[in-house]
TrEMBL record, chain A:
PANTHER family: SUCCINATE DEHYDROGENASE [UBIQUINONE] IRON-SULFUR SUBUNIT, MITOCHONDRIAL, SUCCINATE DEHYDROGENASE IRON-SULFUR PROTEIN. It is a peripheral membrane protein. One of its GO terms (cellular component) is plasma membrane. This is Succinate dehydrogenase iron-sulfur subunit. It is an enzyme of class 1 (oxidoreductase). It comes from Endozoicomonas numazuensis. GO terms for molecular function: 2 iron, 2 sulfur cluster binding; 3 iron, 4 sulfur cluster binding; 4 iron, 4 sulfur cluster binding; electron transfer activity; metal ion binding; succinate dehydrogenase (quinone) activity. Coiled coil: none annotated.
């Protein structure tokens, strides 16, 4: 073990014994290549086995290890201790209820994710005999960036509107809806309109833009949201000229 | 094991907690200065319609050091808003367009547009 030490303060909460969360302090010896996740593992193995946190892939693809490190929402597995000095403050993702320690309750997020119908909706179910549906690389490039989301929820933690209006559909979910709307194989635009353009859709966003800043996969959810504001305004204006969807 | 999720209240001063939020709040605050400046301009037009004396009074009010300070601050705020707004604009364009025109080209076009409009307004002010 190396002789380098770092102090880590973790916001702890045990629903069975704590009235409210409070900080627990740990002194951790670490190696050059250690990530925050390695440090949490060390704490759990050597110092306090009751520490709760989520992780799985350890390579920034599963999206389980989101946490707020020194005030910034980050993936624990790609945050390296060597980049910090003194004391590091670790908190669970903001704007989510704390289940226990660094584990947050993601149920509301999952429900929102389902509400946007994140799958290809094809109104013109093609018979198998007609073969596969083709998509050109150019058509793919339209939505590719918005399909890279790993559901880490860092963007929800970064969004102050999320804290002000917890009903807000939020960055990642709108970006995912946008991803399917931009897909040439999809016909679900109208079915997603309520979620994307409704009361808690894109218009709850004031373009703070921090969601895109913290996103580890360069999804740029702020762009997705604000492109949909333009689209919504366009739909609204067009509805006067062509009230074709009036019946719905 | 009983579940008892803890909801942290949102701080009233959340925008002080992070540099990114502070910049955002300054950006939002620029509209207050612009609104006040518009009221001032509107008042100027009103005074103009009230005759020579009223107009001269408004002009000398503009020369007040405090008013000059306010004008300079408003200009700074407006420029800050413009720069950040121009940075955001390319990302808001429909994805189809965004894939055709690079973000920095759109950004430069915005500045070109601002320059063109400013030149027209200035020219109009000089000639009429
Ligand atoms: S959009 Fe980015 S920050 Fe938000 S959940 Fe997806 S990967 Fe995470
Ligand atoms: S552990 Fe999978 S993203 Fe960090």
């Amino acid at each position: 073990m190396s002789d380098k030490m770092i102090n880590i303060e973790i916001l702890r909460y045990n629903p069975e014994s704590d009235e409210k969360p409070s900080y627990g302090k740990f002194e951790v010896p670490y190696l050059e290549e250690w990530s925050m996740l390695d440090a949490l593992e060390y704490i759990k193995d050597e110092l306090d086995s009751t520490l709760a946190y989520r992780w799985s892939c350890r390579m920034a693809v599963c999206g389980s290890c989101g946490m707020v490190i020194n005030g910034t929402p980050k993936l624990g597995c790609e945050t390296f201790l060597r980049d910090y000095k003194g004391t590091i403050k670790v908190e669970p993702l903001a704007n989510f209820p704390i289940e226990r320690d660094l584990v947050v309750d993601a149920e509301d997020f999952i429900n929102k994710l389902e509400s946007v119908k994140p799958y290809i909706i094809n109104a013109m179910e093609k018979p198998v005999e007609e073969g596969v549906t083709k998509q050109t690389p150019k058509e793919l490039s339209l939505y590719k960036q918005f399909s890279s989301c790993i559901n880490c929820m860092l963007c929800y933690s970064a969004c102050p509107q999320m804290g002000i209006n917890p009903l807000f559909t939020g960055p990642a979910v709108i970006a995912l809806g946008h991803r399917y709307n931009l897909d040439t194989r999809d016909d679900g635009y109208d079915e997603r309109t309520e979620v994307i353009q409704g009361k808690n859709g894109v218009w709850s966003c004031t373009f703070v833009g921090y969601c895109s800043e913290v996103c580890p996969k360069n999804v740029d959810p702020a762009a997705a949201i604000n492109q949909n504001k333009l689209q919504g305004a366009q739909d609204w204006a067009l509805s006067f000229l062509m009230p074709r969807k009036g019946g719905k | 094991m009983s579940r008892r999720p803890y909801v942290r209240p949102m701080k009233r001063t959340w925008y002080m907690d992070h540099p990114f939020y502070r910049t955002y709040m300054i950006r939002e605050a620029t509209c207050v200065f612009d609104a006040l400046y518009c009221i001032n301009l509107f008042f100027g037009i009103l005074q103009l319609s009230r005759g020579e004396d009223a107009w001269q009074g408004w002009l000398s009010f503009q020369a007040n050091p405090l008013m000059i300070l306010f004008t300079v601050v408003t200009l700074g705020m407006t420029l800050f808003h413009a720069v950040t707004y121009f940075d955001m604009t390319p990302r808001v364009l429909p994805q189809q367009i965004r894939k055709m025109v690079a973000d920095n080209v759109v950004n430069k076009l915005m500045y070109a547009g601002l320059a063109a409009v400013s030149a027209i307004v200035l020219a109009a002010a000089v000639w009429f």
